[in-house]
């Protein structure tokens, strides 16, 4: 997993094992898709993303989600909950948790 557009992608050390488990349970690129949706959400509203930190990740079978902490190049900091629900056509929902 790597950041696009020169963005720094950081994974919270505490969740490394959990992230690997979730990646094994989900098809290739699925977690990357959630990260990309969160970054796109932030960039559309607040400008270019400088750093994206994966704070938490979970897979409950019918739902996968990640918590991202994002810092934009204009120093806006926000937290996002990015969820993919497999019961409803795989829709992805991005919900701001804090910040901007």
Description:
The protein has 100 residues and is α+β, with helices and mostly antiparallel strands. The chain has a single domain, classed as Nuclear Transport Factor 2, Chain: A (Roll). It is built from 2 helices and 5 strands. It has helices at 16-25, 30-46, and strands at residues 8-11, 49-59, 63-72, 77-85, 91-99. It has a 5-stranded mixed sheet with strand order 1-2-3-4-5. Strand 4 (77-85) and strand 5 form a beta hairpin. The mean pLDDT is 87.
Task: Tell me the CATH topology.
Answer: Nuclear Transport Factor 2, Chain: A
Beta fraction: 35-45%
Determine the mean pLDDT: 87
Strand segment count: 5
Largest β sheet strand count, sense and barrel closure: 5 strands, mixed
Overall geometry: globular
How are helices and strands ordered from N to C? EHHEEEE
Structural class of the helix and strand makeup?
A: alpha+beta
Integer-rounded radius of gyration: 13 Å
Tally of individual helices: 2
CATH architecture: Roll
N-to-C span: 26 Å
Strand order of the largest sheet: 1-2-3-4-5
Classified by CATH, the class is: Alpha Beta
Task: Give the total of domains.
Answer: 1
- List low-pLDDT spans: none
Helix content estimate: 25-40%
How are the SSEs placed, and which strands pair?
Blueprint: E1 8-11, H1 16-25, H2 30-46, E2 49-59, E3 63-72, E4 77-85, E5 91-99
Parallel strand pairs: 1-2
Antiparallel strand pairs: 2-3, 3-4, 4-5
